[in-house]
Amino acid sequence: MTAVRAHHRRLDVVHGDHHPAYVVWELTLRCDHACTHCGSRAGVARDDELSTDEALAVVGKLAALGAREVVLIGGEAYLHEGFLAIVRALRAANVNPVMTTGGRGVTAELAVAMRDAGISHVSVSIDGLEATHDRMRHLRGSFASGMAALDHLRAAGVPTASNINLNRLNHQDLEPLYPVLRDRGIKGWQIQLTAPLGRAADRADLIFQPWDLLEVVPRVAAIKAKAREDGIAVMPGNNLGYFGPEEALLRSMHAGDRDHWHGCQAGKFVMGIESDGAVKGCPSLQTSHYVGGNLRERDLAEIWKKSPELAFARARTVDDLWGFCRTCDFASTCLGGCSFTAHAILGRPGNNPFCHYRARTLAKRGQRERLVPDAPAAGDPFDNGTFDVVLEAFDAPDPRAGLDAKALVQITRKPQR
Prior knowledge:
By secondary structure, this protein is an alpha/beta fold. It is built from 15 helices and 13 strands. The protein has helices at about 50-65, 85-90, 110-115, 130-135, 140-155, 175-180, 215-230, 245-250, 285-290, 300-305, 310, 325, 330-335, 340-345, 355-365; strands spanning about 20-25, 70-75, 95-100, 120-125, 160-165, 190-195, 235, 270-275, 280, 295, 365-375, 385-395, 410. The protein has a ten-stranded mixed beta sheet with strand order 7-6-5-4-3-2-1-8-9-10, with helices on one face. Strands 11-12-13 form a three-stranded antiparallel beta sheet, with helices on one face. Helix 2 (about 85-90) links the parallel strand 2 (about 70-75) and strand 3 (about 95-100). Helix 6 (about 175-180) packs parallel to helix 7. Residues about 1-15 and about 400-415 have low confidence and may be disordered.
């Protein structure tokens, strides 16, 4: 997901009836940033966003469906006129309200107001050291305002965390950024890969190549091990990892645990709500393919229970997988990894090149996969283009130097739509 839980507790796989235990709610698409990697292309409010009264009516419906935690996002959630009222309503309904933010508008006064309204914790997005962060956020001074937000929240007594979208532009900042955030008092840090979604779909140069995971995943694991000693929970995003040697360390909250990826939870125990009332099984899923209904037109419980667009992961089996994922040793458990990431690359889920186990397996064969842009994105929130996945010799020339036709072995084409 592009929005992450601020406290970084693992969403337990709940046995029994599916219900939206964890909800990510985009209150408005209005934003005071215009980030180069933003999956929702935030900036200007959507047409006909939910009013405060309409949003407050949704709170009770979420509680009735069993929501335990709601992450308020945007755009910037605090730019919605009813932001604090919605926080108070969630708290009153015994639903844990948290927030993910770029932090630009989190003043000392707003931090106190958020605390008094009942916000549980806040994750501030920091995407590198100052120069890199400001470049990614397309705003000089963004890093300073994010750091100030962490300070204001800490002073107000609001627990804080941070999150980072990791890519080819900022990954060298990962290790030096950790002590900066640690010293700012964060309790958790979520590290996820930038997927070619929204504005990031227009910047293929940002996106990791699948073989980059061979270096990146062990580095994230090493940071997590260090952070445990400091009392900070580092957790991977849903699109980072999968069944390499570090899997148990990456996925487990506590030392000694042996947790692992349990498959996409979209529409099973996760829900996303867009600011105009559109409902999806995950906030990062492509709007054009996965909206199951609108809150103004259908009851939330009916959308959750009856919309096939939300139910796809509930019924997913190995037979729904294709390509490498169909034959993988972990197919029945992983079920193709993160759905929105796979869809962002190849136009549908079920075959995900961003997989550590997959990259390691191919490397042992002397091969690697290269993502080559094919069709561009349309320019809409949560849209994607498509890529060809080229299987080539592992020692092929660097992709930034151009393709070497002699190195190409096989091309996996995107599915026809």
